[in-house]
Structures are given as structure tokens and as C-alpha cells.
Specification:
Layout lengths: L3 H26 L9 H36 L6 H31 L11 H32 L1
Helix pairs in contact: 1-2, 1-4, 2-3, 3-4
Length: 155
């Protein structure tokens, strides 16, 4: 029988999979070689990705976090291994959101206004900072997903 907890966990897991997939796909296909792209390609790709992801991620990330929090609230027994895996998964996805909102989005907002002719002198440093924090948030989201899945499968 499906309980409210199982339904919330299932939806949370699917949403977290989608969020993590966005980060993983970008990291795996683009950011590992971002230093090799020309300024024009960097700007074109960056602007397209920013435009495509801004609205969906603004919905998916908070919804994921809210449902994961609901899963914690519905969890039947605190103090168990499963509960603590959920707590750590929740903390990691919040860290992922904070990296996104406090570091990545402000850089994205700068990139949206750049042209090849108006690239700031420190654009490569900003690109490197974006890439570093994108890597961190990719792996915090993967870890969050793995822990949430583990808590559902094994506890």
C-alpha cells in the first residue's frame, strides 16, 4: 500500500533526479572543457543554457526541497539510519541551492549582458569560478540523490 510518505519520497526522488540530471549533463558535456571554447562560443552556449534553465529550475529546485522537507516531516521514526540519510540528503540539496543562488546565478546574470566586445578583463576568472562551483553543486546534488535513494531502498 502506498502511504503519503512513499508518494512524497517518490516524487522527491524524481524531481531530485531531474535537478541532478541538469547539473550532471552540463558538467559532463560542457563545463569539463569550457576553457577550450572561444569567447563567442562560451557566450552563445552560456546565454542559451541560462535562458533554457532559468524558469524550470526556479520551479523544480524549490519544489524538490519542499517535498524532501515534507518527507522528513512524514518520516515515521526519527533517530534511525534512514531518517539521518534523509536529513543529510536534504542538507546537501540545500547546499546545492545556496551555491546556485549565491554564486552561480549572479555570475549568470553578468554573462547574460556580455558580448564578445564587452567581455570584462576578468571574464576567465569568473568562468573558472562558475565552473568550480558548478562542479561542487553537481556532486552535492549527486550525493543528495544517492543518499535519498539509499534511504528509500534500504530503510
Amino acid at each position: 500500500m502506498f502511504t503519503a510518505l512513499k508518494i512524497v519520497q517518490f516524487i522527491s526522488l524524481i524531481l531530485l533526479l531531474l535537478v541532478t540530471g541538469v547539473f550532471w549533463g552540463t558538467w559532463f558535456s560542457l563545463s569539463r572543457s569550457i576553457e577550450k571554447t572561444t569567447p563567442a562560443t562560451f557566450l552563445e552556449n552560456g546565454k542559451i543554457i541560462i535562458k533554457n534553465l532559468a524558469v524550470p529550475m526556479r520551479i523544480m529546485m524549490p519544489l524538490t526541497i519542499m517535498l524532501m522537507l515534507a518527507g522528513l516531516w512524514l518520516y515515521p521514526t526519527t533517530g534511525t539510519s534512514g531518517f539521518y540519510l534523509n536529513v543529510i540528503a536534504f542538507i546537501l540539496v540545500v547546499i546545492t541551492l545556496l551555491i546556485t543562488v549565491l554564486i552561480e546565478v549572479p555570475i549568470d546574470n553578468q554573462i547574460k549582458d556580455w558580448t564578445v566586445a564587452t567581455l570584462p578583463a576578468d571574464w576567465k576568472a569568473l568562468r573558472s569560478k562558475w565552473q568550480l562551483y558548478h562542479t561542487i553543486r553537481t556532486f552535492t546534488s549527486i550525493a543528495s540523490f544517492a543518499l535519498l535513494l539509499s534511504s528509500i531502498l534500504f530503510y
